[in-house]
Amino acid sequence: MWDTIVIGSGIGGLGAAAALAHAGQRVLVLEQHHRAGGLTQTFRRGAWRFATGVHYLGGVGPGSGPEHQAGRLLDWLSGGRLRFTPLANPYDIVRLPGFEFGIRHPQAAFQADLRARFPDEATAIDAWFTRCDALQRSATTMFMLRALPAPLAWGLRWWRGAAFDRDLHLTLAESLQPLRDPRLRAVLAARWGDHGAPPADAPLVEHALVLHSYDAGAFYPVDGPDSFVQALQPVIESAGGALRTGQRVTRILVENGRAAGVEFDDGHERHRESARQVISAMGVANTVACLDDSVAPAWQATLRALRPGLAGLSLYLGFEGDIAAAGAGSANVWLAGQEDVGRVWRRPADEDAPLLFVSFPSLKDPAAHAAPCGELLALCDAAPFAPWLGAGADAPRDAAYKALKARIEARLLAQFERHFPALAPMVRFHELATPATQQHLLRSPDGALYGIEMSAERLGTPALRVRTPLPGLLLAGQDVSSPGIVGALMGGLMAAAALERPLLARLAG
Q1: φ/ψ (deg, to 5) at 445
Q2: CA atoms within 13 A on the CB side of 136
Q3: DSSP state, residue 203
Q4: According to the model, what pLDDT value does residue 140 have?
Q5: For residue 57, what is the enclosing H or E element?
């Protein structure tokens, strides 16, 4: 029998397993894909090595303050194996038709640059940042509600409930209404792609978390994103644990009213493993799908009512030549076709992406990407891919699917050429990943890039807590924390700390 079984080897699952290994637990990590790492894995095509989901990280720089917490935790988890290199500053660039703005860290520099660029709006700019700073208290409340035992969470909700609910329901779009210049609103809103909800829906508290996460700089993992697996797997194994790939969990076993193990399929036969507790880092939708309907039915119904978030399309580009000399850099570029940056890409085969994220990983860590490469990423509606999602997830990629991919790929290449005319002739390889790809690799419902839809309901529901109504079953990853790599990591560490109380000191440090 294992001490703990962790389902999913993304950074949330790996973080939980490594933390428990430090506490002396024997942990079995099960991953349904043939490669571990979730969206931290990389893949190769010829000379090019591509990152699937890591573009930049905040909070991982050297330092002792709270803004460096994630870096300290990862250093401890990995025994110093994980290292990070800084991006340029500005680290994000927003480009609108005829207008460009570079976002610098720390936040004070970003705010000062905005005041200088939009002097008539200085007072409104300061008021907006002050409001975002104040929302950090609600963000702290949110994380505590996720992690605390039920009685303490109830008490905190009673104490902070009214203010917390009010903060959760304030959207990004509403907060920007006092700002008159549409270009200013666009700069402040464009990075909604970092959490997956357009401004009209996005809770400002979540957008404020993104804003503050890069206050101490933006970073990229040295040796590439798959260094997370390479650094954390040995920690798990050194404590007697194991990481197995190609194992699709189909059922969470319940004995005497508590989670007692899992049943899984390796593609050839079914297996069972027992454990004292189970941590699910495969998303709440997949978790409840592995439970009998009789297990906490009201809780399951609440989770099933939470919709998947937006899907994503990624176009991977392989170049030949000096892309830095042709205009590429380590900063990310947010390309918007209009000043209203909140429009969702509904018809990707028939219209340009209204907001396009451009990244050049080979310039963030050249040692990890020997040949120059880039990625175009756009959030989109999953509806055009419905025939190959859900019940049709295992359907063959037929001629209709390939034709749809080809049309989208051609449109994205043309869009890239218009914005980067010097780089376009250097493209030697391109490959498109669709929501169906995302679902196949990560088992994500509707190919959702960030799991559950980012909304006030997601942030406020008491159903999304680390401890579930089923004793012995805990949730980890971004669904119980916040979207992205660092959010998923913190979700995993909260689950580990719920089992091993001494780990709470690490999280509080």
Answers
A1: -55, 130
A2: 10
A3: B
A4: 67
A5: strand 57-58
